Amino acid sequence: MERDFTSRSHHDMGGLEAGHIQYNEHDYEFWEKNVDAMLVLLTSMSPKLMSVDQLRKGIESLPPDAYEKMSYYERWIFSITQALQYNGVLTTEELSRKLEEVQSRYETEEV
């Protein structure tokens, strides 16, 4: 079987001119810290509920427009969700129910 390694995916910037990298320090949002911690837990439990390879695969499978629109941790949470569904840890229905529950909490709060 022959594979073509000459084409690149949209996320693959290796060896290309990409301009200067900005090394600005920034504060992480609370939810970003939670996503980071969640990945550590999910990949270090025994048994592991997902792998870092699954995280990478999920991120790299995003269509170019979604990849460009999503932030770093939005890509992570998308990929984590996909991996947990694939691994049978949670279902789409369970996730939908929880999202509706959380959303209803915010709709009832007075601003």
From TrEMBL:
Segments forming domain Nitrile hydratase beta subunit-like N-terminal: 10-105
Matching InterPro entries: CN_hydtase_beta-like_N, CN_hydtase_beta_C, Elect_transpt_acc-like_dom_sf
SUPFAM superfamilies on file: Electron transport accessory proteins (SSF50090)
Protein name in UniProt: Nitrile hydratase beta subunit-like N-terminal domain-containing protein
